[in-house]
Each structure stands twice: as C-alpha cells, then as structure tokens.
Write a structure and sequence with these properties.
Length: 264
C-alpha cells in the first residue's frame, strides 16, 4: 500500500494559491502545528489504493462528552453511528465511499477507509466522559475532509463529501477556534458545491442548537434537533442516513440533496 504521509499545511497552501481555500479558512486550518497533526491522523488510505472513478467521503463526529452518558444516550449514539455505516454498506455507491469517524474530543475511531473496514462503535471504544470542544474539533474534522478531498482532486478523481457533526451541548472547551473561524471554513466548503455539512444538536434543555449551528455556517435545512431520548436520537440518525445514501448516488442526486436538505 502507498504511504499516505502528506504535508497538510502544504496541501492547504496550494489550495489557497489555486483559489479553492480562502485566506480566513487557511488561517483557521494552519493556526498551529497541532491541527495539522490531528488532520493527518484522519487521512487514512492513500488515493493510489482506491481504484474508483469518483469518491464520496462520509465523515462523522459523535459527541463523547460526559453529558451523553449522564443522559443515558450513549447507546443511542452508538447505534445511530452504526446505522449510518450499515445503510451505506448496502447502497449502490458503496464501493466508491470512504468513511471516517473522529469523536468530538479528538479520538480517531478510524481514519478514511473503505466501508468494509469501518469500525463500528461499541462499549469498548465509546465511553463518553469528556468535554465539548465543539469549535476546535469541528475545524479539525472539516480540515480533514478538505485535505482528503484535495488529495483525490490532485489525482484527477472527482470528490463529494457528506459530514455529520453531533453534540448535546454548546461549546465549552475550545481554546483555538471561534464560531467565526469555523464559519469561514464551512462557508468556503459550501461555496465549492461538492460538500454537504449536517449537524445534530441533541436537546439539553437550554441550548438553541439551530442558532449554534447557524453561527458556524451550517444551513438550516441540514440541522437536526432531536429531543433527549433514545427514540428521537435514533430517528435523527435515520434521517441523516437516508439523506447520505441519497446524496451519495450520483453528482446530480448530490446537488439535489444539497439544495433540498435532509429527507423527512
């Protein structure tokens, strides 16, 4: 297998020089060396090892903060994440899809790889007990999506991406990024018209998740706000799963999905 060690900062500098990455996005994604190292950890399989004429990147960031466990929702998040992967595995485009999961506090469950090699969440690899660095880790995940996209684009392979952010609380632990810096990255990606970014805010009784996600540039039609119950969380994952499968089918379906939003 080809090695997939890349210079992430150089990748972003090139994207900026080519007009694909704004100055604000470049600043957010190269603000320190640690971001580059975190992005590198998610890149996974090298483009040379993916014999596909097009690629769809599906990325998820499940919340692993302690409030998920305290609310009794850890199993619902596990099941929801796995439901998305299983639905993609039986889709028509399964051979063209690469998946990646990074938890909200930075743990990489698995870097980009084929669906057959994706790791399901279970009680051993997911025990939510941490904080909520929502802005910091959203920037890392989206930077990983952008870097992986650029890798494939540089080899002439068309790429579409579908990303899901999941949290049950507002940001309380970010130290680098702000809503404004994350918004610059999100808006930059959406202007390219090959990225879909969805977000799920599980009700905590106080947070206005639609405002939180709008503040970072997520489009209203791609925001999910389930109540704090197993059934509602599972239903929200099902909605995203169906939407992701639809968007992965073709470039035309992707564009229709991007404009139309989540299936309900």
């Amino acid at each position: 297998m080809a090695s997939n060690i890349v210079n992430v900062n150089e990748l972003f500098q090139n994207a900026h020089a080519e007009g694909d990455l704004s100055a604000q996005s470049l600043q957010a994604l190269t603000i320190n060396a640690d971001i580059g190292a975190q992005i590198q950890a998610g890149l996974g399989v090298a483009p040379d090892d993916v014999p596909a004429s097009e690629v769809v990147l599906v990325s998820m960031m499940p919340d692993d903060s302690g409030s998920i466990r305290y609310a009794g929702n850890a199993n619902a998040v596990r099941e929801g994440h796995n439901l998305v992967l299983e639905a993609l595995k039986v889709s028509r485009q399964r051979d063209a899809i690469l998946a990646h999961t990074r938890y909200l506090n930075g743990f990489v469950l698995f870097p980009y790889r084929r669906l057959a090699d994706a790791v399901l969440m279970d009680k051993k690899n997911y025990d939510p007990d941490k904080g909520t660095p929502l802005y910091d880790q959203t920037a890392v995940l989206l930077g990983t999506v952008l870097a992986k996209s650029k890798e494939f684009q540089d080899t002439g392979v068309p790429v579409r991406t579908i990303t899901l952010l999941i949290t049950d609380g507002a940001d309380c632990h970010s130290v680098i990024q702000t809503p404004q810096s994350v918004r610059a990255v999100v808006e930059n990606m959406l202007r390219q018209e090959c990225h879909i970014i969805a977000a799920m805010g599980v009700a905590d009784g106080t947070t206005d998740f639609r405002r939180v996600f709008r503040d970072i540039g997520i489009r209203e039609e791609w925001i999910l706000t389930p109540g704090n119950s197993t059934g509602e969380i599972r239903r929200a994952f099902q909605v995203f799963s169906q939407s992701a499968v639809r968007a992965s089918q073709s470039a035309e379906q992707f564009q229709q999905a991007a404009l139309g939003g989540l299936l309900n």
